Amino acid sequence: MTDYSADQVIWTSRVTDAFGPVVELQDDQGKVSYYNVEKEFDVAGASYAVLRSENGNEDDEPEIFKILTAADGSLELVTIDDDDEWENVSELYDELTFPE
Question: Which residues are 21's β-sheet partners?
């Protein structure tokens, strides 16, 4: 996988448009958590959402999810399982959030 750069980013709002500024996620055990949508962007043909737990504080690291579109057009947020992809996306988010 190639490294992403800030000039490749296209800002989006698909998750916010579909669900609003707060999304409800359910884990494998059925526990529901609420997250504020901080940023959404497309890069290198993939879409990502940066979410922050409503129950956390501002110092907590946000979570980054991949946005997938189902055949029916609905959106799904999934964890990023590929270590290289996660590293590239998290570094890109840091670069976008904390420019040098």
Answer: none
